[in-house]
Amino acid sequence: MTTRAELTEKIVAHKTFNDIKWSDVAAAVGQSKEWTTAALMGQISLSKEQAYAAGNALGLNFSDEEIALLMTVPYRGSLPTAVPTDPLIYRLYEVVNVYGTTMKALIEEEFGDGIMSAIDFTMDISRKADPKGDRVTIVLDGKFLPYKMY
């Protein structure tokens, strides 16, 4: 019996070895590179058709069991430790630690008491050329959900 974590490792190893881009897999699946990557990393479930399309794009002939794992609603949260140790993920964690209260204050000032949805949500990651070194641009776009009074 394969676990979802083992399937993720298989996908990532195969993708890396064969120099396949997430954006190419996403085009075959019909979703954004961000959504498709999250799904294949085990954080979002795919439809059967999307799972087969991903397998074809990756050149992997997924078993029925693997297709079922890709279709299963996951337990979300991909960090193995409370404080991330991977340097890139830690820097994002640091951004939230340093600027989280600022983001919260500015969102509440603009929208009121509520949260940004991570369900009705999109993300875009892109590269921006800069003579001092290319920049990473991350756009998080979530619907505002006000707390309701009752």
Q: Rg, please? A: 18 Å
Task: Decide which structural class fits the backbone.
Answer: alpha+beta
How large a portion of the residues is in β-strands, by DSSP E?
15-25%
CATH architecture of the largest domain, please? Orthogonal Bundle
The main pleated sheet reads as:
2 strands, antiparallel
Number of helices: 6
What does this structure look like?
This protein has 150 residues and is of the alpha+beta class. It has a two-stranded antiparallel sheet. The mean pLDDT is 95. The protein has helices at 4-17, 22-29, 33-40, 48-58, 64-71, 87-111, and strands spanning 114-128, 135-146. The chain folds into 3 domains: 4-71, lambda repressor-like DNA-binding domains (434 Repressor (Amino-terminal Domain)); 79-112, no CATH class; 113-150, Cyanate lyase, C-terminal domain (Cyanate Lyase, Chain: A, domain 2, 2-Layer Sandwich), CATH 3.30.1160.
Sequence-ordered SSE layout with sheet pairings:
Blueprint: H1 4-17, H2 22-29, H3 33-40, H4 48-58, H5 64-71, H6 87-111, E1 114-128, E2 135-146
Antiparallel strand pairs: 1-2
Helix pairs in contact: 2-3, 2-4
Offer a few descriptive terms.
alpha+beta; 434 Repressor (Amino-terminal Domain); Cyanate Lyase, Chain: A, domain 2; two-stranded antiparallel sheet; 6 helices; globular; cyanate hydratase activity
